[in-house]
## 1
Amino acid sequence: MTTDSLDGAPPAVIELNDVTFHRDQRRILHRVSMRVARGRITALMGPSGVGKSTVLKLVTGQLRPSSGTVTVNGRDVHRLSGGELKRLRRSIGVLLQNGALFTDLTCFENVALPLREHTRLAESLIRTVVLGKLHAVGLRGAQGLLPRELSGGMARRVALARAIALDPAVILYDEPLAGLDPVSLAAAMRLIKTFNQALGLTSVVITHNVEEMQQLADDAYLMIGGEIAACGTPDELAANPSPLVRQFIRGEPDGPVPFHYPAPDIAADLIGAAV
Amino acid sequence: MSGTPGLLAAPWAEPLRNLGRAGLFLPRILGCLRPWPRQIAEILRQTYFVGIRSLVIIMTGGLFVGLVLALQTYDVLSDFGAVEAVGTVLGKSLYRELGPVLAALLFAGRAGTSITAEIGLMKATEQLDALELMAIDPVERIVLPRFVAALITLPVLTLVFELLAILGGYAYAVLWMGLDNGIYWGNMQANVELMSEFIPGFAKSIAFGGICGLIAVYYGYFCRATGEGVGSATTQTVIISSILVLMFDFILSAFSLNLI
């Protein structure tokens, strides 16, 4: 399937065109093309270790593709100068997998950090902005706590407040729902949806959580083996007849993606060991 | 390379490669130096933490080095009836060699490993990635302040080490063995040269601060982002820093004595 199935959607903010990426001779991504439309929530799904986070790092310019192009707002990320790349990163909020809060700073200071680094706002204004962001994620009362005093879900919400501190136009979520309890999961999903609508953001959510993706995303891409296996709306993905897609969507342990890691025949292996 | 020479050379290959890379990392660190109040404040904050971390071990180490040095020299000099020279021997050996070297070795083991582990853990928990993604240079924000802090702190800690060692020597020679107070201080004052002994020793401690700081930040910043990687990096920091301190001690000593 190609990205053409998403034609008719709003203009693209992020586009990957035929991107291939190798690390130490190992192919991670192969001819990946995808398009993230403005104002929508796009889910990038796939099993663990399939290269989803690599896509995120290509979009933010942390990695350089072996071939193909990655554009954000029509500009090739990997042709930007150092200063332009910094400006681009300021316009993109990223929520990393474990929140990546600075452990020696309080929640307030974590959220204030990008404001202090990139703006010349007065301290009173920084305080207003930070408390506003923390209030939006429901953690204004936790402003004085250190990250070690927070639960996993709370830490991710503080990290989300930090990610939106500079009012980015695009926000990238790397596994925002992984390992959360039901209450934190519901809170995280509501925040992603609310922020996208209320702040007019464009969101990319990297996840392997099928049910939540169906509730959250407007568009979805499924990656398997470093390639885009399918794309479309969540409903289209659910109805996809491909065995590869069906195995992932239904969570079947065996199928086109085998349960067993490639190995010699078990009988030969066991008999060989006995001899 | 193969055979015995290859086996002997192999353990040196990776550390030498890393030394080269650390050397190339230095201009990148120094290139981030800006006279901005925020950076100065962070350097001062790190200087305080690095200093505090090492202060107790430096003070304790200094005191006992002074005690044992006085004990041994007093014992040897008493055979020649020259115990009056204890203060001189202590001053010369501490200012020229033992003070800068031992303080640097203790510093590498305490503050150096701490800096490596801190930066390595920040890498393993994606905090460095988070900075980069916020368009904040991790070298400028995390690495530089710690490097400069080590550069500033070690010479000061060396002075503390030497002061405590001299006091340790005083405690043994004067308070315990009954050497005359005036002889201990007077001989030290008369025979230890400021320009040819104290200043070169102090210059060494600045160089050692740079070496320990660079090695600590380099191994932390470039470690593998795993628990095993951070552990290995901290071990490497102690080993490489200690060897470099001893090597540079010889080079700088030879240089200060106009031998090279």
## 2
Amino acid sequence: MKAWDLVRVLLAYAYGVLPYLCLLSPLRWIPAGHTLSGHLAVRLTAATAALSLAGTILSAVSFDLFLGIHHLLAAAGAAVVLLQGGRRRAAPDRPAWQRFDPWLAAVLILAFLVRAAPILIARASLGGGDARFHNILAAKILLERQLADTWLPFAALRVAYPQGAHVLAALLAEWSGRPVHEAFHVLLCVCGVLTTGVLYRIARSLFGSEAPALWAASLYAFVAVLGSLDYFRWGGVPNALGMLMVCLLILALLENAPRHARRRRAGAVGGGLVLLAVLRIHHYSLLVAGLLFLFGLLFANDRALRRLMLGAATVALVCALPWLVPRVSLGADELAQTAVFRFREPPLTLFSVIQHMNPALVLAFVVALAEARRRVWTAPQLLILAWLAGMVAAFAALEYLYRAASLILTRGGDCFTALTPSRMATDLVYPMSLLGGFIPISRLWEKHRGACLGVLCGSAVLTCSTLSFTQASVGVAPDAVSAAAWLRAHTPTDSLIVGSLPHVEYLSWRETSRPPLPASEARRHPAFLWKTQRSTFREWFAWQDVMQRPLYFLLAPDGRTPPFLREVYSNPSVRVATTRENDSP
Amino acid sequence: MIRNPTTVFRILCGIIAVSLAVAAAGSILFLLFGEFLAGFPTDAF
């Protein structure tokens, strides 16, 4: 991706969030904070949540309606700014949040640069892992001009995945004129920066001073790999965006709980709406927020905080009914056809989790917890620890106990897990980074301040520089791109491609026999299984006789083409062959 | 509601410790039977 293209997408993002930034500014449940950078990060996050929520609601009817209403909101936002500008000129005092904090600003700018480096180095990246289906969903929104209802033409299945992140990517792509995968790249950078800012604000609220907040924000921005710098590798934009909203929700809870009743009610409504945005962006982040609420309600020793959590959950539940009722009414049958409770991923050892998180982050967290063990923990600090305990318990239960149960119940015939435990490990870095903030208020810091800072800076430089270069090859597949371009240009639109290459569906817009679908989709539905269960040429020819659709096969680059096929395209990574009766023109 | 923060802290640390013990035991089993577990298919697309 070129630097100018990145700027174009950023400008589109700015136009997207500015109206909401202006319209949300009078709301008091979004706390003002102590510094300009932190204040902006929180406001931008709230504006992004509002934009995404509005996008999913309006685009369910029409994407063009969403765009049209956005222009009206931009005008309304400008009016609010003008009105507030007049009032502000009359006020003699300068608000505390207008204080510029150069350290936080530097952390946020660096956080953006280290995330932008791999996408600028890897100019032709289409995104890693999950980007294969995220790109499809966002491209479908642009093509069909509304939220994707089905996975057609790739699979005759209903879309269950929430599209809050995809509608944002589609919006940025529409306004910037860049493809959706580049919009996702920029969204990932923006999410990293905003999460750093919001975590700073949460840590500021937890510890009451600047140094622990900066430490926690820096741990997340530069040291955490899983759940932070690693998002680009597996293309987890909805996870990053969903967790950003969960962080905003935590901040709303912590900042509004100690206030008066009226402010708490506003906090409950605001928190509920943020939770609703999480529901429309990423179901797994909603699960993580659910753990926060469950363990928070069980262990938070502050009545106001518990009431606020209950209030926010109630508001979210009531507002979410239009989406939840149809999902619940589908029943257990549809859920059984997904991989939600029967997901086969490679087993994760504790050692590999630590390795993926970054041992330096785990070390910082363990040292922080050991140093803080003799302190009297405040209710907000206990809430974060309860959240962490909930996630660790869920991870252990899903990855080890559930997997063991699956082996026992199938008598060694199958080994699967539920609710993708690797994602739980990914999301653990958020509370770990926050609690790492205990270090700058510990005795260790008093005695070895220079050494602590040296270790942080050293591990940050090592982590960021290593990842910038190792991630430069993520999603770069020139042979797959040229094969997909050939398929798009030379095959009929109703062709079926047997086999798959990374991103070939997104680029060629042709149905393949193995389309990438997330675990939340009905991958065991007969409408999908018929493709994955065919394995021989004979079975495919029998299918073609019935369906009368052109068939193309993706073959390995080395090896002989069977005599009943004709090779029509090849490059160093793949060959395309077809049956003799549908030779390409 | 448990009001004493030290008690809450200890309970939460206990939950984390038990979970980590389960994870450590599971990890050792994964390492011991890695070859057997590697034989199962994955849902990667």
